[in-house]
Amino acid sequence: SAIRKLRASFISTVAQCVVELAQNSLDALATTIEIHVDMTKFFIQIIDNGTGITPEDMEKIGQRYATSKCHTLEDLAHVTTYGFRGEALATLAEVSALEIISKHPNYYDTYCTILKGGQRLQCGPTRSSRRKKPGTIIIIRDLFFTYPVRRKHLSENGFINELENVKKSVESLALIHPQVTFTLVDASNDSKIVTTKKATTNISTFRQLFGSSLAQNLDSVYAEEDDIKIDGFFSLRGFHTRQHQYFYVNKLLIGCNEIYKLIDEIFNQSSFGKKNYELPLKSGSDYSKYKKSSMTKSLEKYPIFFIHLTCPTTIYDKCL
Ligand code: ADP
Ligand code: MG
């Protein structure tokens, strides 16, 4: 039961669940990912055009440590996929009713498996015509049905708030994967809340997500030393929240506040104090009354940045 507790806490919000599912689609090299969420029903559906799942793997999916991404200790050092532990779907199979429908290019049939409360209810070929091209559909119903307290917590904190978290998570995945078309739909009213079209640069996806006024006059960042590389873009015009600050390591968004504060400081020291920078005010506004560093303090602006650090996976602990 201790293990159960540990595993259930691994996914404790709808946003985390969506991230795990979308990361699986990205690991499966999907170029189109469509996510539907109905927060009040604890329902999530994700449709991708990735590599699909073989019938053999389909039988194992949802078992603890069932992963197709990492088999040996040697693999562990070099995995470049988001997943390698085989825990997300096993956890979801326990805390929801999980349905997986998948078409693998080497098999004629589409396969389906259903798990609920850790039990496999069904597994085999399906006559459903829902999936003809290779790819996978994953449907989560009754998420956290075994955890009424968690559900209560989510509903007390507001479904809208959690939907906002889902939106931010999808945006941050879309930003680092410009080549993928992402759609996030609020299934309770069928409205699209995130849409990105395939692009070639992170800036172009940034523009699609947040509009061209925020995406204009961005400066680029680039540094390379040995096998470590940093690239991205920033704007010292700033934004009134930290909402537009993104720091990734090997395409994984880092959520650690200290790092964001540190990057803020670096930007502050290197530029805010020295240069006059533009404020994101409407054109024609009089900037001259704002003086250098005092304005950062009084206006509480945070630099906008997107920074991606690429480095060998062997130099840090992936399990943290
Ligand atoms: P992990 O990602 O750590 O391998 P998961 O529990 O997230 O573990 O997924 C288990 C396995 O299910 C994956 O290793 C992969 O083989 C398969 N899988 C899950 N989602 C997809 C998907 N969308 N497309 C193809 N395979 C998938
Ligand atoms: Mg995974």
UniProtKB/TrEMBL annotation:
Gene Ontology process terms (BP): mismatch repair
Positions of the DNA mismatch repair protein S5 domain: 206-320
Alphabetically ordered keywords of this record: DNA damage
Keyword presence, DNA damage: yes
Statement: the UniProt record of this protein carries the keyword DNA damage: yes
GO cellular component, one term: mismatch repair complex
A single GO molecular function term of this UniProt record: mismatched DNA binding
Family classification: Belongs to the DNA mismatch repair MutL/HexB family.
Protein name per the record: Uncharacterized protein
Organism of origin: Rhizophagus irregularis (strain DAOM 181602 / DAOM 197198 / MUCL 43194)
Residues of the full protein shown: 9 to 328 of 862
